[in-house]
């Protein structure tokens, strides 16, 4: 008996103007999915790559949340909002006077030098205007209500800054960063450092880990046929089982022989069809008396059906 939904990874281009949560809800309705996760949200104004694990594949969401990201950013010079993006409250708008000053003080050589210095950063404070929760409320709401909010610092890595260019309204660049890095906070910090109002005009996520925008579709283009399976997106070593071993696995028992060699993120136990995942397993963190630990057993005892292909 098959499940009433399909599982897989959906690669979607998020347009500007909607939240990542809106996109997830629209995807659930469009594909008739019981559950759709995400692997790192984008701000409302931002656009670009979202990887949405659907169905049983939501179990793999956490793996992708930690992947590095790359972005294309366009910055307006002379304009500053409280959030550092177009959705924020305008604090300074001096574009007519500041842009000529910027052109004079920041020739392309200096601009490249300043932006390349970002690779020396090892930590970042989250922007005050953010969706982070403080005491159950959005941090941005608390800040705009006048509450004092502690800026939490977190470790980050900026691997590369490239393709720095001057634009009609300011400048643009590409940046490759670790997970959890706020690009708009980088711009806010540069604004303070340079003494020049700056704000993001556009932000495009171009990659998550090894996956880029190639063959990525917009919401109005996707269908269930666009779901990608584990072999394409999250391959791991496998152990194929027979019927007796399968019964042991789905009832919490263990397989003791012919196990794969240890690799990052563990391995799969597959059904005899060599495609259906029965369990996701890992050697890391297991007690000594068992051969591995189960990160997830894909079995619904009430429905008596297995993980979908």
UniProtKB/TrEMBL annotation:
Reaction(s) this enzyme catalyzes, per UniProt: uridine(55) in tRNA = pseudouridine(55) in tRNA
InterPro entries xrefs: PsdUridine_synth_cat_dom_sf (IPR020103), PsdUridine_synth_N (IPR002501), tRNA_psdUridine_synth_TruB (IPR014780)
EC number: 5.4.99.25
GO molecular function: RNA binding; tRNA pseudouridine(55) synthase activity
Active site: 43
Keyword tRNA-binding: no
Any one biological process term the GO annotation gives: mRNA pseudouridine synthesis
Keywords, in A-Z order: Isomerase, tRNA processing
Similarity-based family: Belongs to the pseudouridine synthase TruB family. Type 1 subfamily.
Protein name: tRNA pseudouridine synthase B
Native organism: Leptospira bourretii
